[in-house]
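Friendly challenge for the regulars: who can give me the C-alpha cells for this chain first? No prize, just bragging rights.
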Amino acid sequence: MIPPHIATGKAWCKTLLIRVEPELQRTTGMSDQSYYYWCRNDWNE
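First reply, four minutes later:
Bragging rights claimed.
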C-alpha cells in the first residue's frame, strides 16, 4: 500500500492540517499532532 502522502503529496497534507480523519489515525496509529509535524517537515514551505 502506498502511503497517502506519496499518492497525493502536498494537497493531502494541507487538507490533513485542516481536518484529520479519526479513522486515518486509527489505521496508521499516528496522532493528529504527529501528522501535523510530520507533514510540516515533509512538505516544508
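The radius of gyration is 10 Å. The longest helix spans residues 32-42. Your move, everyone else.
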